[in-house]
Predict the structure.
Amino acid sequence: RGCLKLLTGPGTGTRPGVMIPIPQYPLYSASLAEYNMDQVGYYLDESRNWALDVAELERAYQAAKDKSDIKAIVVINPGNPTGQVLTRENLEAVIKFAAEKKLFALLMKCTSRMFMLKAQLSTASRR
């Protein structure tokens, strides 16, 4: 919640938005409402065991970008309440998406191995 609060500073008059998975644990939507931030929902694909699809991230971003100043994306892994576990390739794609859109990535319930992946991608992108 402290990270979300940091994203609510003085802005352009457009409410800040945060991309969150649907379905999700209600703490995220409640926290966004508390800080007067827009919920930019991206849908997980139930037919693929609640997979996260980068095309869906792009759809959600494009649908909300004119109404919200999208600042961050929340990724919950393993998913709550779905229990899905993202693949390495999926995590890499999400991190690349966040970097392209200049979004702060909030990776919830991540293990140290996932943080090492993020560090490797950051190092590789600077080369």
Q: What stands out?
A: The CA atoms of residues 78 and 85 lie 5 Å apart.
